[in-house]
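Lab notebook, design round three. We kept the backbone fixed and only want residue identities now. Task for the bench partner: fill in a sequence for the structure below.
Input structure tokens:
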């Protein structure tokens, strides 16, 4: 599942909470959540709260380390 977060503002605890919950729901259904085009601030928050392995980042135009589903 790919979630485009390019327009998510502000990058705050509420955004992190929502994305973490989406990742948990996806995982429970046997799929992985990818976040596409997060801001630098959102990426910093992923790292700060330890979600970088749970929320892999996919930048538009760049091939990801793993292949996310087609969006």
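Proposed sequence:
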């Amino acid at each position: 599942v790919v979630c485009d977060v390019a327009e998510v503002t502000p990058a705050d605890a509420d955004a992190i909470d929502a994305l973490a919950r989406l990742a948990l729901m996806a995982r429970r259904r046997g799929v992985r959540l990818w976040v596409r085009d997060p801001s630098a601030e959102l990426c910093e928050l992923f790292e700060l709260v330890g979600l970088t392995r749970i929320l892999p980042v996919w930048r538009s135009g760049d091939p990801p380390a793993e292949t996310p589903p087609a969006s």
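Keep this in mind before ordering anything: The helical segments are 13-28, 40-49.
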